[in-house]
Amino acid sequence: MSARDSILQRLRNRSGGELSVPECDFSVLQRPVSSVAERIEQFQKTIESVHGEVHSCTRDSWVAQLADILSARDARCLLVPGAHEIGRRLRESEQDDLPELLIYDEPIESWQPHLFNNVDASITSTRGGIAETGSLILWPTPDEPRLMSLVPPIHIAVLEASELYATFHEAMQAQIWASGMPTNALLVSGPSKTADIEQTLAYGVHGPKELIVLVIE
After folding, report:
1. Which residue of 1, 79, 185, 201 is 20 to 30 Å from 91, comparing CA positions?
2. Does residue 156 sit in helix, strand or coil?
3. Is there a domain that residue 15 lies in?
4. CA–CA gap between residue 123 and residue 144 (Å, rounded)
5. pLDDT given at position 32
6. For residue 212, which of 159, 175, 143, 139 has the smallest C-alpha distance?
7. pLDDT value at position 23?
8. What distance lies between CA 90 and its chain's CA centroid?
9. Residue 194 three-state SS
10. Rounded to whole angstroms, how far apart are CA atoms 147 and 111?
11. Gap between the terminal Cα atoms of the chain
12. 151 is in which domain, residue-wise?
């Protein structure tokens, strides 16, 4: 008998039989049915309470709104996905007031100094959002590495209103997370913040100073 089997056998003997897993009751996590408009309102209220910024857009207007947002901040460049529809739309756009568009298409060893010192803003897609906590769900990919959302001073996230869920549990169920997840998943709730120094909350210390969400309705 292996050490593992021996330990399990002792546990069975102590409990008087086979170990059983209790049934899970997730009813406490259920929320009343809400409309998309109600979820957007709750999401915006929650994320803005921690210094996030939300802009409602349409599929035709978001590029122009993005250009205005970046122009107001004097952003010189924007890091975009290489293959994702967001990156393609920006590169093919005739919007002439967009900043220089960059693509994260080389190893981090050669790209790191430029990423940390010269990139003003980045834009990423999202896998959805959570209205209750004002959180964005990001699943990094080779096309959108996690450093795109963690390093530049301004992180802009594009969120489809139809993918805004009431709770984290609802998001996991609707997207069938149990069938497979990436090696790294991110929940982003506002710009970076810390209370390490004298327990005083400070924003933008270890990552983006601004989080701007474009909600596509």
Report:
1. 185
2. strand
3. no
4. 9
5. 85
6. 159
7. 79
8. 20
9. strand
10. 11
11. 61
12. 36-192+210-216
Decide if 175 is inside a domain: yes
Q: Per the structure block, which two tokens stand in for 9?
A: 């056998």
State pTM to two decimals: 0.84
**H/E segment holding residue 125:** strand 121-125
pLDDT tens over the chain, length 217 residues: 788 888 888 877 775 556 577 777 777 778 888 899 999 999 999 999 999 999 999 999 999 999 999 999 999 999 999 999 999 999 999 999 999 999 988 888 888 999 999 999 999 999 999 999 999 999 999 999 999 999 999 999 999 999 999 999 999 999 999 898 888 899 999 888 887 777 787 877 788 999 999 999 9
Could you tell me if residue 161 is inside a domain? yes
Q: How many domains does the chain have?
A: 1
**pLDDT of res. 15:** 56
In which order are the strands placed within the sheet that holds 77-80?
A: 52-57, 210-216, 154-160, 121-125, 77-80, 100-103
Whether residue 44 contacts residue 203, with contact meaning beta carbons closer than 8 Å, is answered with no
Torsions phi, psi for 22 (to 5 deg)? -65, 150
The enclosing domain of 54 has a CATH number of: 3.40.50.10420
In a domain, 105, yes or no: yes
